Every structure is written in C-alpha cells, then in structure tokens.
Amino acid sequence: MTRWRLTVEFDGGPFMGWQRQDHGPSVQAALEQALLQMTGEPAVVHAAGRTDAGVHALAMTAHVDLAKTVSEHRLREGVNALVRPQPVSVTAIAQVADDWHARFSCIGRRYLYRILNRRAPPALDRGKVWHVPVDLDASAMGEAARHLVGRHDFTTFRSVHCQSQSPVKTLDQLTVEQAGEEIHIRAAARSFLHHQVRSMVGCLAMVGRGRWAPDDVRAALEAKDRQALGLNAPPEGLYFVEALYP
Amino acid sequence: MTRWRLTVEFDGGPFMGWQRQDHGPSVQAALEQALLQMTGEPAVVHAAGRTDAGVHALAMTAHVDLAKTVSEHRLREGVNALVRPQPVSVTAIAQVADDWHARFSCIGRRYLYRILNRRAPPALDRGKVWHVPVDLDASAMGEAARHLVGRHDFTTFRSVHCQSQSPVKTLDQLTVEQAGEEIHIRAAARSFLHHQVRSMVGCLAMVGRGRWAPDDVRAALEAKDRQALGLNAPPEGLYFVEALYP
C-alpha cells in the first residue's frame, strides 16, 4: 500500500463541489473514477478542504492509498488522461508517509476571491469571477477587512450547514488589492468555517459599494448572528489556492 | 447617422472567428444581431482585425453606424444584454467622427500568445492557452524572436489564404517572457499577415524545445517559403490585445 499526495487544479463550474454526491458530478468522484479505471481499485480520495459547488482550485491537495505499484509519472499521466473531458488536472504527485493526511496534517489554507469590478460583464472569465457592475472602493474594503483578522467567533460568517465544532477561528490574513479591473481578496487561516470566505467577501462588498461603513463589519462580527450577515458572495469568484503542511 | 466605436472582449472558443460566416457563429454576427434587435437597423460592424476561429480578444476595436439616437450607456447595456449567452462583451463605447474607421484608421495592433508549459493539462484555462507539455527554453525563444523584428518579407509566416497585397511587413515587437508556468509572447506591428503571429509562435516553440537553433528561425525567414515553416501554433493561445489609433 502506498499513500500518494496529489496536487489538483480544477474548474468548479460543472461540479456540485469537491465532495462525492449522489445527485451530481463532483471533483472527488471524477478522480476516484479515473483511479479505479487505472488501477482496478476502489479508492477514496481525501482533500485538504471540501469546496462548494462552483468553487475553483489552483492547487488543492489530496491523498489516496493504492495497492498497485505504479510510477509517479505513470500515475499522474494516467489519471489526467482518464479524467478527461472533466476540467480536473493533477499537476503534481508524490509518495508520502502512511500517516500523512491531506486534511488532518494541513496547518494552513489559502483562498483567493476575484471580483471583476466594471460595468461590462465578463466574456473571457465568465464563471471565473464575481461580476460587480457598480464601483467598489477597494481601500474602504481593505479597512473593513482588518476588523476580521485575528481570533474571533465567526458565527455571523458561518453557514447553517457548517459542521465545525467551534465557530472560533483565527484568521491570519485578509487583504484587498486592486488589480486592474479586478479586486483580489486573499484569505489565510489554519482552517475556515463553511461559507466563511464568501460571507466575509460579501460583507466587504457591502462596504465597497458604500452601503456599509468599515465599522459595520466589526459590528456584524460582534453580533455573532447569521442574520447580521450582509451578503454571501457567489462561488464562482472563489479559488482554493494552497494547503500548507509542516 | 452616428458612428460608434466599440471596444469588444470575446472568448473565441465557440466562434468561427470574427467575420460573419454562412456555416457557423461569428463574433461579428453576434454583435450585429444584438444591434438589430435593439435598433431595428441591419448594420455592419467593422473590426480592426479579423481573428481566426478560436482566437480571443481582450479589447478588439470595431465601429458601426446607427441612425437611431441612443445614449452611450443604453447602447452598451442593451448590446451586452442582448448578445447573451454568447461570450462577447462591449467594454467601452464612444461616438467618433464619420470618417473614423476601425480598420483603416488603425495604426498599430498588439497580440499576446499564452503557452502553458507544464506536464499537466490545463483545467482552469482550457481553451485559453496552448498546452505544451515538454520543457521550453524561453531564453532561446527570445533570442530567436529578435531575428524576426524589423521590416522583412514574411512569406514563410503567411497563410496561403492571406489576402494582403504584400508579404513585406514591419514587426515592431516580438518578446518572450516566462510568467510562472506560462510563456507569454507579445507581438506588435502596424498590421500582420494572416496566421503570422501563430506561425512565428510555432517556430519559436521549435526553438524552445531544442529542435531548432535560434538561427534556424532567421533561415526560415530568409527562405521566404511557406514550406520552411516549422509549425503553426493553435488558435486557443492567441489574444488580440489592442488596436492603436492616432
């Protein structure tokens, strides 16, 4: 039995999310099906994070145990050939120790959220950005973001479906950067609550369009109440960037 | 009658190219159909350049004459609403003089070519880059590119379908830059022959993978013979970046 670490890029558009679902395609099922075809073994692929429907990944980390002996090169090439035409690509692969776990060994997760902030809708990046057609004030959004960094009870920014034991998380980074016509929001933490990044981005957008003052984000945080949420940003602008390990 | 200048972003994937065709969808037809629905006028949209099937545009410039009186805002919003779901977006619009012409007034055109140079196929940028899975030497490609800059007979780099009166063109810029996993080739000239950018990129890729020496590109140019062409790069990596006017 060999444990393999996979680095996976995917376009979340056609998927119900990372996790295997009965009612539609998932990234996990796409990879498991390709591995089954290649090795004949039904194997479970574990990821560092379970992304929602429509959320993309630049480099999700996952692992899988395989009995079959195969080279790194052949495994990566085989999975990439068999997973087509689904938009999933294994960009790197390596053998890891048997006790290494993509989810439980992970000590940090990074996300990027892309807002296209112009009047005209996207043609080239359709489904890859959140299109906000009204002017956003990125500097006010950056000021609001600073209220969320640190250790807090993030109940306001937590989905009702969240399975985390505690709403208390430490947000290490939340930055807002104007990049041409886009606004990029970067978030880093050991772990996130379900919908936390999209909920934070939604509130920052309320500030960006002037409906909220930067301090209103602090008030929403302190309310510890999902009803205080301004807006949940849509999934198509969100990218899982990287999982960090010791 | 008002002449309007349109700046157009499009994903070339689903189109037979810019120009109206009998046998399939085109960007021109998509825009003309939206304008017809909006104004009731059958109008011809003229572009700075006629891109091939699969080629994208970050900012194509075009013009159209309309009798109907309409505000800039309403015209842009109306076209963008009516052109959906086709991946075409009018990003800017302005009134111009009656003798201004998107094609004939244009004094410069810029293209970008994106190569994804890694083993794994693209998941997020499928159809938006040329995937070259073998290592390319960007610095050798840059050296080869310098042989093509300047005024030359580009017969080697010209499609048999090219309608230009002369194969002699002045290439103002051809640069090669490594950008993470991508190689970006930027080309600028007053005008280009049909397939010129893709033909030049194809030869640079021959150099990049070591099949050609940089000097072989000069020899191919001097041959003035289409048979001397190494390879025509595929359309999906090519972007019309900008048209310049006095």
Topology:
Two copies of one chain form a homodimer.
Chain A: E1 2-10, H1 27-39, E2 46-47, E3 56-66, H2 72-83, E4 88-96, E5 108-116, E6 130-131, H3 138-146, E7 150-153, E8 168-179, E9 182-189, H4 196-208, H5 214-223, E10 238-244
Parallel strand pairs in A: 3-10, 5-6
Antiparallel strand pairs in A: 1-3, 1-4, 2-3, 5-9, 5-10, 7-8, 8-9
Helix pairs in contact in A: 1-2, 3-4, 3-5
In words, what does this structure look like?
Two copies of one chain form a homodimer. Chain A has helices at residues 27-39, 72-83, 138-146, 196-208, 214-223, and strands spanning 2-10, 46-47, 56-66, 88-96, 108-116, 130-131, 150-153, 168-179, 182-189, 238-244. Chain A is an alpha+beta fold. The first copy, chain A, has two domains: 2-96, 2-Layer Sandwich (Alpha-Beta Plaits), CATH 3.30.70; 108-244, Pseudouridine synthase I, catalytic domain, C-terminal subdomain (Alpha-Beta Plaits), CATH 3.30.70.660. In chain A, strand 8 and strand 9 form a beta hairpin. In chain A, helix 1 crosses helix 2 (72-83), helix 3 (138-146) packs across helix 4 (196-208) and helix 3 (138-146) packs parallel to helix 5. The longest helix of chain A has 13 residues, at 27-39. Chain A binds chain B through residues 9-11, 56, 58, 76-77, 80, 84, 87-92, 118-124, 126, 128, and chain B through 9-11, 56, 58, 76-77, 80, 84, 87-92, 118-124, 126, 128.
